[in-house]
Amino acid sequence: MSAAGIGRVFVILVVCVFSSCESLFIGGDSYKRELTVKLYPNTTPSGGELLHVRAVGGNDTLHFLFCSQGAPTLLIVHTNSSSSTVKVNWPEFLARNTSGSLTVEPQSSVLYSTAVVFSRLLEYDDENDTAEAKSNFFPAYKLKDFIWTRMNLSDSTATLCGSPPRPGNGSLCLQLSVFGSEGRVDLEPRLLHSANSSQLEVWLNGLPPRSNTSRFMLELEAVGGAYPLSKVDVRKFIDDEYTPSIFQVSLWVSSPNNGSDILGFVQWKPVAYRTSRPSLEDATPCRNSDPRQQSGNSTSASSALIKAFYSDPAAMGMNVSFGIAGEPYYNSTMFLSWTMLVGVGSPPIDSFSPLVIGILTAGLGIPIVLLLGGGVFVFIAKKRESSVAGYEPIN
Amino acid sequence: MADFEERGTLLGDENEGPLAGRQEAGGPERPMSAICDPSHLLHRVVVLVFMCFLGFGSYFCYDNPAALQTQVIQDMNLNTAQFMQLYAWYSWPNVVLCFLGGFLIDRVFGIRLGTIIFSLFVCIGQVIFAAGAWANHFWLMEAGRFVFGIGGESLAVAQNTYAVNWFKGKELNLVFGLQLSMARLGSTVNMNIMGWVYNKVAVAVGSSGHTTLGISLMIAAGTCVFSLTCALVLAFFDKRAERILQKEQGRTGEVIKLTDVKDFSLSLWLIFIICVFYYVAIFPFIGQGQVFFIEKFNFSPAQARAVNSIVYIISAPASPILGFIVDKTGRNIGWVFAAVIATLCAHMMLAFTFWNPWIAMSLLGVSYSLLACALWPMVSFVVPEHQLGTAYGFMQSIQNLGLAVIAILVGVIVDIRGYLVLEVFFCACICNSLLFSVMISLPAGEDLNRSAAARAKLQKEMSTDAE
Which residue spans traverse the membrane (chain B) (predicted)? Predict the structure, then answer.
């Protein structure tokens, strides 16, 4: 379609012009962090590595710990010193018997810590196309039993793939990206991240479904010492520029005493994509259940990192289900991807892009200016006319 | 559908039908019952019923894509840009046909055969469209919309010609108003019923998919067959009336001369620009509005279709009332200005707030009707009578060109940048319309903004001067 092609080129050209001015407009969060990456490889047959990313800011440090020993876990520790470090007793860590094998030194500098554990992948048969997710569940995939590959590191991203213990194709992959400054990843849903957050993308590729009408759910557990993530807020906003047709963002927050201060969060847009090159027509809505208390001990047992860091963890579990009634089933593309941000402090807030502000200013401003200018001009002209004393005709 | 109906109201007053003059000359030779007597009101009311339903099918099927947006996109695996092609292909043939419609009816086919041919195009076009969905070929669906477009707008010309032929004077305004209301009724019924039809077919077939879509569209084609039947019946009545009353076949009375274009004044070109910039913010928006209401306001598909159709529902009663008001008060530019500002407010509400969209869409419906009543008569104030046909044809043509191009652009914008940018784009178009409606008061403000009383006085003076 040449007409559609020309239209596309025109819009992209306008977008490029405005995006190149974007750096002038982002005044918001210019906080930057220095990133250093360290990988603890594991040569034992059980696999499972530990990735440590140290993000150092002006006077604080964020430690990101990503572990594939047992259920994949992301742990974020926020300390108020720029020289804090992580000490790992590797043999004790692998033994998974005691807590305290992973510590942050100095202990007193730890301000806040939060962890997210990917515990189970649930599959249910949605024969009536209602997407209710209450019955017809197949036996769940326990992610702690998956066979995980080595972490693939590049820049500041780490990719981890795992397949179920049964032989066969298909895998569940996780990609962690840690950022040193504010920005936006180019792939949809184009979440805005700050220097205090990391992005985790989860995707299911080629895993054979157990029925033609099955849909999937992912179970997450949030672990924290004193204040785990407890409730999910849904915020509406009018700008869907970066994720067309999505006008909400969901936040799983930890706020002590139901105050307005947010200590830690998991943020996502309620959309999942059915192809690896996401676009509007491949989007499928996703919904979450209310977070419920889980047993901290069973979470410790499934994840080595939780066992190592927390002595008495409190856990809250939540399910994210993909697809609603009327949407295509998983087997239409055999692919599902979902992205979330995990971070500490206040979550990043989206704002209008320069493109929208530019069009608004030009589109509304120019006519108003012209109207006012024209009105003034006409007023002055009329005054001048009436002040000129001309000869009046006799009849 | 482009606003052909509104301009028909204005030509009607100038062309009193041949039936009027010939009534005394060739009366019926033997006494007939009232209902069979072509000159009697009762017979003409029966003919009016068929005349109104003549356009029902084409207006019903024009907005089928909008009513079934989610189903079309899902079953045929489209993105929004491809979906909007269905509207673009309807508009492309009308860029040219707006000039040719009157000519074809007057010189080539005659009103009776012309109406039947255009109804056939509408019918065949919709059948091809449905067949394309059934066979899962999108290119065939686009071809179907193209054929449908060839018949659609020209059928409106034919419908107006029949009306002028059978009714005269004050009756004519009422008839045009009724035809317009029937057209809007067709659009409304389509929006609210097609979803239900699709669901019922899906249950019968067993699953949704392109086959279900094809069958639903074939059922919609039934309305086109009904309109074709009305065309055949009208041809029969018209031939019979011609024989009994010994009158000529009706003509459109329009004269299209392309060379007149160089004589168009600046204010006329400004009117064209206002028209284009305004309508591209209405029809393409309704065309893909269903998904917008579902996603942003969490409406169910049925609610989204209902709120999408509110513009047409309001337009049906509001157009005659607002037309009466504008006729009585004059000051057309002021009304155009008010309508454009109201539309801008409506789009800004939809873009920047989560307020109930029923409010914004109702405002949109009222302002759309107001603009139609105020803008189209302005053409007759700035153009001499012998050029009116060409001016209106050109306005329709540019309007269709704008709709065809912008429909595609709308789809692309939604796919890559989402609905806020789309609404901001619509606001920018409306602002352009606003700008030009202010600019037009500079060269021709006095002329176009006269009150109705002043205009009547001026016409009286001009006719006494001429004597």
Answer: 41-60, 86-105, 117-135, 215-237, 266-286, 306-326, 333-352, 391-414, 420-442
Of the candidates B56, B140, B69, B59, the residue with the CA atom closest to the CA atom of residue B285: B69
**Where do the domains of chain A lie?**
34-344
CA distance A377 to chain B (A): 12
Residue B346's H or E segment, with its range, is helix B332-352
**Alpha-carbon gap: B401 to the closest alpha carbon of chain A (Å):** 13
Q: Is the pLDDT of residue B169 over 80?
A: no
Residues in chain B within 8 Å Cβ distance of A4? 81-82, 85, 408, 411-412
Cβ neighbours, 10 Å, residue B28: 13
To the nearest 10°, the Cα dihedral for A244, A246, B299, B65? 20
Which of B351, B412, B418 is facing A245, going by the closest CB pair? B418
B425 contact residues in A (CB cutoff 8 A): 359
Structure tokens that stand for B445 in this block: 């403000």
Q: What is the pLDDT of residue A17?
A: 53
CATH class of segment(s) B262-467: mainly alpha
Please spell the DSSP secondary structure of B351-415, one letter per residue. Answer: HH--S-HHHHHHHHHHHHHHHHHHHHHHHHHHS-GGGHHHHHHHHHHHHHHHHHHHHHHHHHHHH
Closest CA to B311 of B366, B365, B367: B365
Give dist(CA B41, CA B37) in Å, integer.
Answer: 8
- Can B32-249 and B262-467 be said to share one CATH topology? yes
Contacts of B354 in chain A (CB under 8 A): 236, 238
The CATH architecture that domain B32-249 belongs to is: Up-down Bundle (1.20)
Distance between A19 CA and the closest CA of chain B, angstroms? 13
What is the value of pTM for the model shown? 0.84
Token reading at B251: 């003509």
Determine, for residues B435 and A366 on separate chains, whether the beta-carbon distance falls below 8 Å: yes
Helix axes B388-439, A366-387, angle to 10 degrees: 90
| Composition of chain A by helix, strand, coil, percent to 5 | 25, 40, 40
- Predicted confidence (pLDDT) per residue in A289-325, tens digit: 999 988 888 888 899 899 999 988 889 999 999 998 8
- Asked whether A235 and A216 are in contact (CB, 8 A), the reply is no
- Neighbouring C-alpha atoms within 13 Å toward the C-beta of B78: 28
| Chain A residues bordering chain B (beta-carbon distance below 8 Å) | 1, 3-4, 7-8, 10-12, 15, 236, 238-247, 279-281, 326, 328, 355-356, 359-360, 362-364, 366-367, 370-371, 374
Please report, for chain B, the start and end positions of each structural domain, with discontinuous segments joined by +.
32-249, 262-467
- pLDDT above 90: percentage of residues in chain A: 30
